[in-house]
Design a protein that fits this description.
alpha/beta; elongated; Rossmann fold; four-stranded parallel beta sheet; five-stranded mixed beta sheet; 2 domains; about 300 residues; 10 helices
Length: about 300
């Protein structure tokens, strides 16, 4: 990531006079998650974001006012709800995007619309954080695109995330630390593995994930895997478990189910938990609060 600046050249007439010249047009340059270098002549003022985590990262950098359109799932902060919605992140309405005349479109790496948008002359940057480290990199790259100095932008935001993440970790009851956890990220079931950003959050909170890193960040698993693992605590959103724990074969016999060691998150909480962006520490605090409740419940039962 770099900001290409003008250079100074000497006059050809005896080297006495100095002249300013642009060796290359002044440009902002980033390499996106595809490995593609994208250059902009100036910081973008009209941005379309097609991924909620990118929308939230942009707003965390105090640039919500540059958004002119979002995907249907971007719903935070509240002010983005009044923006034009241009479809889904993977398959947006390209005509609607083009009509907004953006000077930058932020998309997920998995978007199927990138080639068509670039063919229309739109500047497209593909970014998709899957880990804490990648979430920080996304903040840095968006900060570069916006021409915001790191100390005022990405570094400032990340320092706040780290501080709040540490507070959440310190608030986890000692009695539940190193408990074995199963976190269902979405119906399927798709689990959050050790090397996903959710898995990293669980590790920061002194939890042990029953979904090993070798299975991938968000593997689709057989429910029997969870029965065999017999975790101490189950976690999932209400969207996945609408009426309590799913009636998978054998699940009723698991310790966590029998003891009621279950964290079920509201849709609003799930939005925070499943987005790898500036609200990750808030997600950690949501999990920590549930763990505090479970510890209190266990204390009353003894």
């Amino acid at each position: 990531m770099k900001r290409i600046k003008p250079c100074v050249v000497r006059s050809l007439f005896g080297g006495v006079l100095l002249a300013w010249a642009l060796c290359a047009a002044a440009q902002i340059e980033v390499t996106d998650a595809r490995g593609v270098k994208v250059q902009l002549a100036r910081p973008p003022q009209r941005i379309v974001s097609l991924l909620p985590s990118l929308t939230e990262s942009l707003c965390a950098l105090d640039a919500c006012n540059r958004l002119v359109g979002v995907d249907r799932y971007s719903n935070w902060p509240a002010q983005v709800k009044s923006l034009p919605v241009v479809g889904g992140g993977l398959d947006p309405n390209i005509e609607a995007v083009f009509a907004l005349k953006p000077d930058l479109v932020l998309v997920s790496v998995a978007s199927r619309a990138v080639t068509r948008m670039e063919a229309l002359g739109l500047k497209v940057v593909a970014l998709e954080p899957r880990t804490h480290g990648e979430a920080r990199t996304v903040l840095q790259k968006i900060g570069t695109l916006l021409d915001i100095p790191p100390a005022q932008g990405a570094d400032r935001v990340w320092a706040g995330i780290e501080a709040d993440m540490n507070k959440a970790a310190n608030s986890v009851p000692e009695s539940l630390r190193q408990q074995r956890v199963y976190f269902e990220a979405s119906r399927g079931p798709y689990a959050a593995g050790e090397n996903s950003f959710i898995g990293e959050t669980l590790t920061r909170l002194h939890m042990r994930n029953v979904i090993e890193a070798k299975l991938g960040p968000f593997p689709r698993i057989n429910p029997e895997y969870v029965v065999k693992a017999d975790p101490d605590i189950l976690m999932a959103g209400e969207r996945s478990w609408k009426t309590g724990v799913p009636e998978y074969p054998g699940w009723a016999q698991m310790r966590a189910v029998k003891q009621g060691a279950i964290c079920r998150f509201t849709p609003e909480q799930s939005d925070i938990l499943v987005r790898p962006g500036p609200r990750m520490a808030e997600g950690a605090q949501i999990i920590a609060k549930c763990l505090q409740g479970l510890a209190a419940k266990q204390g009353r039962a003894q």
